[in-house]
Design brief:
heterodimer; A: alpha+beta; three-stranded antiparallel beta sheet; flat; B: mainly beta; 7 helices; globular; disordered N terminus
């Protein structure tokens, strides 16, 4: 009886172990490193029809910490290894509610002022640094309205956005040739 | 719509680089990414098996039933020549080689019972007496009571590949950094089962999976879309605590064999005890099928022409490839000096019965190339370590530093300074361990232990951090 109990226990543990180990430690360790560094995790598409570049994406973002999207463009023409600068956000170059709607998957960006050449675009999914319950004055948020030190929609303002958000996910890069 | 084909097809770049290499193109400052060791699945299997064996030594020395270990390693300053698709110009881009390593082991007693509430209790006894060398429980912690047969399962994985970083200026919201995968990413995994019945024997057996995945053009990864998968089988064993036997093979070819003798444990079989101040020696012979006329090998085996009389190329068929074996004999010594101070010495000698033609000597004026003269000394290192808490049982703070020498045929291709085959280097590490958790960090430059895993790390600084959790 003792042997049967032990045999059953070993087989059960074996099934758990096999299912866990089958993931492969190299992939698990890679995902841990990916969580530490900000890696491209989804793809976007882009097309050019003067004077606009249209960027489209398909990202499910119903997270309560979602703060908006940001579109980035390379600072140097014809250089895929260049750094990026902000092309469009909720507040830049002007307030654009389309960059805050979690249901949209497309945005137009006017490139009339750019020199001809190849530019690379990326999309950032922006999240608040903290969960709703932790967005307090003590944690550096500017709580301006409603119940004291309790976050509500009225506190979703540009100063808080600039100070207390981060890129939660970044897209892969997509190239667009502009005439 | 322009779908950014920012990266040339990965294989095209590699073939470009390899063909240039085969044609005798050689940059003394190693700008072209040749990926020799990365692509060599034999040396990759050796690396992941060495990591597996190294971790299991700790597991058995501490009689653990559970072990989780993770390590992150960064080598910045990989200068890669890439072709700008838009302009057609060659550009040198600095990238970072990222390596991650993880290991998980679960052990179950199938004869005997779980014993001790912790690693500390199992080694030093429940009466909490005794000092660090284990004299409260047994004369020597390497010779344990044969009271249980353990069945264990281990998954060990090693990922490495190049990444590049870009800054993102979010305007008034600040600046952040992102990273992208560049070129082939390598995933090597071991899945093993083990039987441990110390001190009589232990045996590990399993499969080594060498997997390669090319990033998508936009830098994202499709993990299920691998470009090359190779399977190997390995066995690693020890008999009577002194004789190590390890072997690895593919489905159609033997790849490596290692036979080692832990001299002090052999002596203990006939003597009551070995004096604490006698150095612990291990002598190991290895037989590695390391040279296989592959595109990424730095040498041709035999002569530079195939059986048809044509010069060998990187794209010749497998039937025309020849195979060569590297033999090594190594000596590992460990000596406790005084207090928490100890010394480690390692020497490895190499020889081959195969003729090896160095590819980079195949110039237009010398298409046959020159034979390689292997240095008798392949690797050597000397390190000193000091345990600041040497009087405590399971609370170690160990500072270790060392100097090393490593010889490799591929070294001239990858090194940044100089053109020779031998590299001098060293390392400095700090390790903190308790009975349950531990942390370590290491900085190295041309350290032989790192060059053995990755010759592409030549003349580059490396930073390494690791953590473990055990029971």
């Amino acid at each position: 009886m003792i042997f049967i109990k032990r045999y059953f226990r070993i087989v059960s543990l074996l099934l758990v172990v096999v299912s866990f180990l089958s993931a492969g430690c190299s992939y698990i360790s890679d995902s841990i490193e990916g969580a530490i560094s900000n890696r491209a995790s989804f793809s976007i598409e882009a097309s050019y029809s003067s004077p606009n570049v249209t960027v489209t994406w398909d990202v499910d973002n119903s997270d309560e910490n979602f703060a908006g999207y940001e579109l980035y463009i390379t600072t140097e023409v014809n250089n895929e290894f260049s750094g990026y600068e902000l092309a469009k956000s909720r507040y830049q170059p002007s307030t654009d509610l389309l960059m805050y709607s979690s249901s949209i998957g497309s945005i137009d960006y006017n490139v009339l002022s750019l020199d001809a050449g190849r530019y690379f675009f990326r999309l950032g999914v922006i999240h608040w640094d903290d969960d709703v319950s932790d967005r307090t004055t003590e944690n550096g948020y500017n709580i301006t309205a409603g119940t004291v030190d309790e976050w509500d929609a009225a506190d979703d303002i540009e100063p808080n956005y600039n100070a207390k958000t981060k890129i939660d996910a970044i897209s892969g890069l997509v190239a667009v040739d502009i005439d | 719509m322009v779908n950014g084909r920012i990266f040339m097809k990965l294989r095209f770049l590699f073939i470009m680089g390899i063909l240039l290499f085969s044609a005798g193109f050689f940059a003394a400052d190693a700008e072209v990414y040749e990926a020799s060791t990365l692509h060599n699945a034999v040396s990759r299997s050796e690396t992941v098996q060495d990591l597996f064996t190294e971790r299991w030594k700790t597991i058995m020395d501490n009689e653990q039933y559970f072990d989780f270990y993770g390590r992150l390693n960064w080598i910045p300053g990989f200068s890669i020549n890439t072709i700008n698709k838009r302009t057609g110009e060659k550009e040198s881009v600095d990238m970072t080689l990222v390596r991650t390593y993880g290991s998980l082991t679960l052990a179950f007693p199938i004869l005997g019972e779980y014993s001790g509430k912790s690693v500390e209790e199992r080694i030093y006894g429940a009466d909490d007496s005794g000092n660090k060398d284990g004299t409260s429980k047994k004369e020597d912690s390497s010779y344990v009571d044969a009271d249980k047969l353990l069945l264990a399962f281990t998954a060990t994985g090693f990922h490495y590949g190049l990444t590049s970083s870009s800054s993102i200026d979010r305007g008034t919201a600040g600046t952040e950094t992102i990273t992208d995968y560049r070129y082939t990413q390598f995933f090597d995994d071991i899945f093993a089962a083990s039987l441990v019945y110390r001190p009589y024997f232990f045996i590990h057996g399993g499969v080594v999976l060498n997997n390669q995945i090319d990033p998508n053009d936009d830098g994202t990864m499709s993990y299920g879309d691998f470009s090359d998968l190779r399977i190997r089988y390995f066995v690693s064993s020890n008999i009577l605590s002194f004789l190590n036997l390890n072997a690895a093979t593919t489905t159609d070819r033997f790849e490596s064999l290692a036979v080692g003798i832990i001299v002090n444990n052999l002596v203990k079989m006939v003597a009551d005890k070995v004096n604490f101040y006698v150095p612990a020696f291990t002598v190991t012979y290895k037989n590695l099928a390391l040279y296989n006329d592959e595109a990424w090998d730095p040498v041709w085996v035999g002569i530079s022409r195939d059986s048809n009389g044509d010069l060998k190329t990187s794209i010749m068929t497998d039937s025309l490839k020849e195979h060569g074996t590297l033999h090594t004999i190594s000596l590992l010594g460990h000596q406790a000096i005084i207090g928490g101070l100890s010394l480690n010495l390692f020497l490895e000698f190499q020889f081959t019965f195969s003729t090896l033609i160095e590819k980079k000597t195949q110039l237009t004026a010398n298409p046959e190339g020159d034979e390689v003269n292997l240095s008798p000394l392949k690797e050597g290192y000397l390190s000193l370590s000091y345990d600041f808490f040497s009087d405590e049982k399971y609370n170690n703070l160990i500072l270790e530093g060392g100097a090393s020498y490593y010889w490799d045929i591929s070294a001239p291709v990858h090194r940044v300074y100089g053109t020779g085959y031998g590299l001098w280097g060293g390392f400095l590490s700090l390790k903190w361990e308790t009975a349950i958790v531990g942390f370590s960090t290491k900085v190295a430059f041309n350290d032989s232990d790192e060059l053995r895993k990755l010759i592409e790390a030549s003349d580059k600084f490396m930073v390494d951090v690791s953590v473990f959790c055990r029971y």
